[in-house]
């Protein structure tokens, strides 16, 4: 069945979002201590926790920054949280889920 164009027009947005709504706000530059904390976390994760290249790619700087910010820049808390997440990701493998393994409840 073909839907007439006039019906489609009702479902189009009535406004165009401004550029500020589309782009994320630029992040503030990191202080020297924050940069040092990020470097320490990255070195720890990439050398002792991450076992594969895939895990190292997952634990990129934006990802590690989210953990640090969520834990108020506590290095120890962030290390534990990233390690727990990697353990969970190893167990449940969310990156290899395909549509055939998902069912509705």
From TrEMBL:
Start and end residues of each CRAL/TRIO N-terminal domain: 60-85
Annotated segments matching region Disordered: 1-20
Entry's Gene Ontology molecular function annotations: phosphatidylinositol transfer activity
SUPFAM superfamilies: CRAL/TRIO N-terminal domain (SSF46938)
InterPro entries documented for this protein: CRAL-TRIO_dom_sf, CRAL/TRIO_N_dom, CRAL/TRIO_N_dom_sf, PI_Transfer_CRAL-TRIO
Domain of life the protein comes from: Eukaryota
Gene3D superfamilies: CRAL-TRIO lipid binding domain (3.40.525.10)
Descriptive protein name: CRAL/TRIO N-terminal domain-containing protein
Organism (species): Modicella reniformis
Species classification: Eukaryota, Fungi, Fungi incertae sedis, Mucoromycota, Mortierellomycotina
């Amino acid at each position: 069945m073909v839907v007439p164009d006039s019906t489609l027009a009702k479902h189009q947005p009535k406004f165009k979002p401004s550029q500020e709504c589309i782009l994320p706000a630029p992040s503030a530059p990191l202080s020297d201590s924050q940069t040092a904390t990020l470097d320490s976390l990255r070195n720890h994760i990439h050398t002792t926790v991450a076992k594969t290249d895939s895990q190292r790619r997952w634990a990129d700087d934006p990802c590690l920054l989210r953990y640090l910010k969520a834990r108020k820049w506590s290095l120890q808390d962030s290390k534990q949280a990233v390690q727990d997440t990697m353990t969970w990701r190893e167990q449940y493998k969310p990156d290899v889920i395909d549509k055939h393994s998902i069912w509705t409840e």
